[in-house]
Ribosomal RNA large subunit methyltransferase M (Pseudoxanthomonas composti), 350 residues
Amino acid sequence: MNGLLCYCRQGFEPELAAELSERAASAGLAGYARTQRNDGYVLFVCEEAAALDAALPWRELIFARQKLRLIEELRALDPSDRITPMLAALPRDARYGELWVEHPDSDAAKPLAGLARSFGNALRPALRKAGLLSAKEDTRLPRLHVVFVDGDHAFLAQSAPADASPWPLGIPRLKLLPDAPSRSALKLEEAILTLMTPAQREQHLRAGMTAADLGAAPGGWTWVLTRQHLHVTSVDNGPLRQHVLDTGLVQHLRADGFRWQPAQALDWMVCDMVEQPRRVAERMATWFREGWCRQAIFNLKLPMKKRWDETRLCLELFAEQAGKPLQVTAKQLYHDREEITVLATPRQRG
Ligand SMILES: C[S@@+](CC[C@H](N)C(=O)[O-])C[C@H]1O[C@@H](n2cnc3c(N)ncnc32)[C@H](O)[C@@H]1O
């Protein structure tokens, strides 16, 4: 079976299917999406799977939590021996650096977590004995994924660790610290971890940098920025938690985030205002066009319908109106609900 298997947030299969179909078509590759609402994954069947894989980097996919290259679909697996057909389906000359046994993050598949854990423990030694799995984790080799969608139905797939989510199920395990002012703090933490590379984090998130946080109350995103020792102007008519103000790094302004502008250019602007996505995209573009910030992370809350169309439209609007070349990365993060998170940075030369 040729194609891709991508995980997504349950309920966002149509958006992911539309994204994959459109991106495959623009790369000149024929294929079709196979999906069912609330499955938490989409298959994109395509004969030219290698070309498709290369044309759709995981980082650039908005609705895909994970991107895997399909090897085989196995149905009617015998619960007393699922290992033999799996070994038979893998190419003899394959060698994997790691094994992840997973299931989609859907209501129907979550109960398969126990099976995935115990099956992984049984399959690992069998793969090693067959010479298919390295003795120790090796991220230079492809990673093998077994994806159970039912007790007797699984997909074999592989990922390239450099072009895939580094977390099983594509879900980063972030802990909400007790002093985080809101759960929203996890969204910005995940955005920094997922949308930025380690080199970008080191270079662009440094102590002493300046930031604005639009729609800041009760202070989760501001708190994340102060933990990186940034100086933050937090704009919101609502109150910020006292311990955030006590960092000495925060100025709280009770103002309208759609009107306020900084007196001097800032290193960062972040925005979590709940508003119509087009209005937010336009305001974010104004910040770049006017040179008020060098880089930004912002949320776009999606409507109930035509969410892929709205996503594409907002990102196009933002890119057009920003008036300068930007590197834009957008993702529906695990901690995002009906929204996506966007990182915009100056485009690197070369
Ligand atoms: C989802 S909450 C932000 C949560 C925050 N990022 C955190 O981590 O705690 C959205 C906030 O946007 C604020 N907001 C909405 N419209 C605004 C506007 N026009 N100007 C300033 N703040 C606004 C609301 O008051 C609300 O506090």
